[in-house]
Amino acid sequence: MEVFDNIFAINHRCSSFFLGLLLLLASALSLADAKSHYHDFVIQATPLKRLCKTQNSITVNGMFPGPTLEVNNGDTLVVNVVNKARYNVTIHWHGVRQMRTGWADGPEFVTQCPIRPGGSYTYRFTIQGQEGTLWWHAHSSWLRATVYGALIIHPKEGSSYPFSKQPKRETAILLGEWWNADPIDVVREATRTGGAPNSSDAYTINGQPGDLYNCSSQDTVIVPIDSGETNLLRVVNSALNQPLFFTVANHKLTVVGADASYVKPFTTSVLMLGPGQTTDVLISGDQNPSRYYMAARAYQSAQNAPFDNTTTTAILEYKSSPCAAKNCSSNKPIMPPLPTFNDTATVTAFTSSFKSTGKTFVPTDIDESLFFTVGLGLNPCPPNFNKSSQCQGPNGTRFTASMNNVSFVLPSNFSLLQAHHQRIQGVFTTDFPANPPRKFDYTGNVSRSLFTPVPGTKLYRLKYGSRVQIVLQDTSIVTSENHPIHLHGYDFYIIAQGFGNYNPRTDPSKFNLVDPPLRNTVAVPVNGWAVIRFVADNPGVWLMHCHLDVHITWGLATAFLVENGVGELQSIESPPEDLPLC
């Protein structure tokens, strides 16, 4: 028996050796196919005319939206950002996993100090195991209102999309918001008054408001299609503060991907995207050759809250249409119906249709079971404030927001990642609560005593490799609302969503552990909850926040400190030499 054991041990060692060799060879071949892409981003003020008015807006390379970056799965991006604007700036690569490269993630005072006017910083990172549509945007104050662009990740060289029909052409559709003012002035005024910021003056598709706004029809975006074609639309909600419906007149949309993950295809007539989310859809040229409006308008779930109730349009134009060869301004495109602004039933039907395709790796045994409330709040007017001018929230208060009753405060002298890496004391604590400090009827009539959160820079510590479940619970404090919650550095599985208060006894029966969608941003339902799971396999400091920028401004955020694991491959890389200083 001992002889057989020895033979088995030798064979096992040989098998392990050859398996390791094969994996090393496969990795080398994969690296041989991968490319590095180099880009220069110049942040600068650029005159832009929209809605009959010209104003200096902050852009990248004078473009609005900014440059579309295209890579293949496995490629490396090297982007040198030079700040020639008058504001501090950082760039976030929204949805990129940033495995061990947290220094390149971009949120101001979280993973880096800002790039000061006149300064520069080079972001370097590799995109691994992701395919589809992501995007990049400024992550400093409200600069992302105009500083954003698409990040398209194609399959590896020699591979094709896992679709039954390969698209003939691809078009990025970036939905945005436009103010007839400097967005920095808008948020600064709201911070001064303590009230809600002014709503946007228009929505945009690829930077243009479209035919339904003044002085805009000449520059309405035209998206070409031809009869018999199947094309891929990569839709991104780049809006600052507004979930949006999107539809195309007379055309069905087949959803095939979201947040750079493939999904089981399903057909719909309307999309809903929260800010930060992306959706890839196939559209077929199966209608009469003509012109059809693409349209987007607000999904507004918060009651009695002001919002921009306008509609942006682009035109889907058949190349064989008589209008394609000449100016057909008199030939009005066909307008699609859009859901009413508060149509939560349509939103629920759409979001519940997402299912992952292929093999999933949903954690089943959970190490960290967390429960985070998300919502607004009100601070009383400080004694030294002018109540009429500085406390313009409800009943002479100031708006705030929180997770688990902690209103997140960014540091100003160090980034959180720098403080963690250099063991600098006094910048943050790791006592963010795993559960709400007080249980209450989250979606019912909430006591006014719970309206005022505690400010703090509190992180939650996770061991490397821990399996995490988070219940994200909306609250009706001030008003309930659909919150797009984004987690930096990770994708996560959305295993369940529902309305009312999450019930830990009965709601786990609704968990989808077979084919839940893999996302980086989850739209927590108004007056409801969502449950997500992920494995903490990426060391660093990772922000989790509401992607309505007005809410992160008020403190609806926290961050995870994920410890290093064992060895170099489970540890964050050293900071780059040109990392900006505070």
TrEMBL record:
Subcellular location: Secreted, Extracellular space, Apoplast
Matching InterPro entries: Cu-oxidase-like_N (IPR011707), Cu-oxidase_2nd (IPR001117), Cu-oxidase_C (IPR011706), Cu-oxidase_fam (IPR045087), Cu_oxidase_CS (IPR033138), Cu_oxidase_Cu_BS (IPR002355), Cupredoxin (IPR008972), CuRO_1_LCC (IPR034288)
GO molecular function, one term: hydroquinone:oxygen oxidoreductase activity
Family: Belongs to the multicopper oxidase family.
Span of domain Plastocyanin-like: 44-157, 170-320, 431-564
Segments passing through the bilayer: none
Residues spanning the signal sequence: 1-34
Catalytic activity reported: 4 hydroquinone + O2 = 4 benzosemiquinone + 2 H2O
Record-given protein name: Laccase
Keywords: Apoplast, Copper, Glycoprotein, Lignin degradation, Metal-binding, Oxidoreductase, Repeat, Secreted, Signal
Organism: Populus alba x Populus x berolinensis
Function: Lignin degradation and detoxification of lignin-derived products.
